[in-house]
């Protein structure tokens, strides 16, 4: 193979992905030598891939329409949390509970997304920093609401006092593992493939992919790549942007439900506070930029990022006898976001 | 145009001017109202609140002042001030390890923090130059990133690679700094240098003088060539560049100054508190300082020294009062706690939204001006 081919290939894939990919690969290679089971590692990676995938997918619509990375993901997550707690209040169990939660999440997500989208239309050029603070403020606002909400289910309300929701609520008995266990493949004791969850992620991706092949979807991409051109072509730019934000918010809400059914807990209060950053980092690791993101970026990025998060604690612990995983997570994820933000981009200011 | 507005202002009656003042400074006005409502509900005495306010002013003013210069240079709110705070904390760890006591220790820490701050500030400036127009979100993420590096150094490097002798500092596993560092050696040495008691209220005069000195320096700096350059860049980067100002270099200098001041500010902050939460103290400093300056009436593109003091007072008044007010009004101290968190983030959001909205409108207006009146009319009917 000649050097030019390698060079263009590297350029296409991008150095950050290659480095992270090699790093992850070497962790998998090193694992058996330090008594870390590869089978467990792979199934853990798969589980975390499925858990986080939809939330990473929630980045795509907003990036495509030119609204930047969805740092306001917590807003979507909040709609999902509302869906979750109201489902538990209704007392639905099993798979119907998950569907109910999705159904309740939807109107909230569309409503929040609509307002959020309208707001972002007024602050064009500054979407990302404002999105971050919209996320933060809404989480802080909901902290007060969780305390005041007149819900009664004893699984959710603090035991003493009988008022205010708990910080973590178990999904056991409601929709714990409903997706994970659907058609799950178990080989031996340690290897597990959460087929249902992966299928669900695939369906979501397919939906978004299909949407981008509709007329509205193409118009949205046009808005993202050149708003002036799109306007000249008769597309209502602001409307497209609002639709994309609503989609992102809805995907965020569904994403947290998928996360909860696998994780086993609903995390209220400050739980969603920092959840946007891992999702943003994941899609960027997957090769997305502030202006362009695809389903491919979502899948590759989530796998690489979650793979590193799964493998570093176990492997690094065994090698150097300390748990540096938290620090590595902070440096890798924020380093990736920083890298993407400082890339020279064609269309001036967007922050 | 402006002089006409000024004349109008002079002709207005007192209530009209009052209303104008409120519309011009909606955020401080809102906070004054909140405070007026919440103070009686909290049940705190005036004496207690005054003492608290003075303590908070001493603690935070210097840090908040560090934000002014980047705002002047048009770089927005410097979330990267956290990096300066980290430099300050690393310096404090060293002087605590070396056992240097009192004022010399405090000043040594400040001097020690400076080269680190300059380095961090230089890096921040370089990075922000690559992200023009989105400085804020970049500096925000940079602060998170730097926090990772800080943890790597302090939690893993110190005691293993970097020599730290004191057992009181190092974790029992042999390396890494403990969660809490007792700053007894330098605790309130500056605050208690010239102790004054007025009506039973302690006033740390020396620290106030130190803060005043910084204020004077900022005022002087604004008038220097460099200060003028920064303001020109803040007005319009392209025009400043055309006028022969080294834009990128000047922006780096603005951030370096801010970072150095934040480092010193963090040392003053921690000497007042007396203990350092090695892994938390710096984290919230950026957010609190920014919320404070905005509550004081500053915007993303305009900040005065007066905004700092008013902001620190109003923000911390709410901080002190809201848990008790929440408890007395609704029976839940947690609610007050969350309320103040919400307000801190909410106020930053509002300030950012207002700024971005204004900027967008200006852009649209200048664009419409270029395109002629016809398009403007069309836009008007559309809206």
Report on the architecture of this protein.
- The complex is a heterodimer of chains A (351) and B (383).
- In chain A, the strands form two sheets. In chain A, strands 1-4 form a two-stranded antiparallel sheet. Chain A has a two-stranded antiparallel sheet with strand order 2-3.
- The longest helix of chain A has 29 residues, at 94-122.
- With 351 residues, chain A is mainly α.
- Chain A is built from 14 helices and four strands.
- In chain A, strand 2 (185-187) and strand 3 (191-193) form a beta hairpin.
- Chain A is globular, with a radius of gyration of 21 Å.
- Chain A has a domain at 39-273.
- Chain B is mainly α and 383 residues long.
- Chain B has a domain at 49-304.
- In chain B, strand 2 (195-198) and strand 3 (201-204) form a beta hairpin.
- In chain B, the strands form two sheets. In chain B, strands 1-4 form a two-stranded antiparallel sheet. A two-stranded antiparallel ribbon of chain B has the order 2-3.
- Residues 374-383 of chain B have low confidence and may be disordered.
- Chain B contains 16 helices and four strands.
- Classes of the chains: A mainly alpha (351), B mainly alpha (383).
- Chain A binds chain B through residues 71, 119, 122-126, 128-130, 132-134, 136-137, 140-141, 143-144, 147-148, 164, 277, 322, 324, 326-328, 330-331, 334-335, 337-338, 341-342, 344, 348-351, and chain B through 127, 130-138, 140-142, 144-145, 147-149, 151-152, 155-156, 332, 334-335, 338-339, 341-342, 344-346, 348-349, 352-353, 355-357, 359-360, 363.
